[in-house]
Design goal:
- By secondary structure, this protein is of the alpha+beta class.
- The chain contains 8 helices and 4 strands; from the N terminus they run ααααααββααββ.
- α1 packs across α3 and α3 packs parallel to α8.
- It is globular, with a radius of gyration of 17 Å.
Length: 210
């Protein structure tokens, strides 16, 4: 993970908010102290969508949460964090709010929502996103998923992972879909993951127009 691909202040703060919601304030403080992130207790980042947290602080948070709570606990916190991140993006972005309210075919709005997220994250939607209209599915391929990048750099297939485990990104994918929940119902599965030896992290979004 490079500084350029690290989390924004808004994304990182969303993870901290989710951690506090799940564990309470004292539980969050305990995790941050364990992860050597004491500065985040009194001075957490704001909700700036442009400024970025250091690579080291992102790694400490992800690793600390996983080490203390285990894979299942990490998944619960980080999935919620990903969804909260999208809610925070919407509340701070007039263009996204306008897209949600736009009088447009619901599936086209959904595709535009995912395309906008991928573009803002530095990816080319034309290269990594598929729309399988006959199956009501959108598939997103991530060969360099930020969430597991550090673990992969240390070990090609880290021990202890038997199933896809990039819960933060999966929460983001669900959050993007839920922006349009008045018109479309979505579910998201991470069906491939580099943590279990796959070549990519792959997210399959299934949608149903209401």
């Amino acid at each position: 993970m490079t500084q350029e691909s690290s989390l924004t202040h808004l994304a990182y703060r969303s993870c901290l908010d989710a951690l506090e919601e799940v564990l309470g304030k004292n539980g969050m403080i305990s995790v941050l102290r364990f992860a050597n992130l004491e500065e985040m207790i009194e001075n957490p980042p704001d909700y700036d969508p442009d400024a970025r947290v250091s690579h080291e602080d992102v790694t400490r948070l992800f690793t600390g949460v996983r080490d203390i709570l285990g894979d299942a606990g990490y998944g619960a916190v980080m999935y919620r964090g990903g969804m909260k991140m999208i809610k925070n993006v919407v509340s701070h972005s007039a263009p996204v709010q306008a897209l949600i309210e736009m009088d447009l075919d619901p599936v086209e709005k959904l595709k535009l929502g995912y395309s906008a997220y991928l573009t803002n994250a530095g990816y080319d939607p034309e290269k990594i996103m598929e729309h399988l209209s006959e199956k009501n599915e959108i598939v997103i391929h991530r060969e360099d998923c930020t969430e597991c990048d550090d673990l992969i750099q240390r070990d090609e297939k880290p021990d202890g992972f038997s199933r896809p485990s990039c819960a933060f990104v999966r929460g983001i994918m669900k959050g993007v879909g839920d922006c349009f929940k008045r018109e479309v119902e979505v579910s998201v599965v991470e069906e491939a993951c580099r943590l279990i030896g796959d070549d990519e992290c792959r997210y399959r979004v299934t949608y149903q127009v209401k």
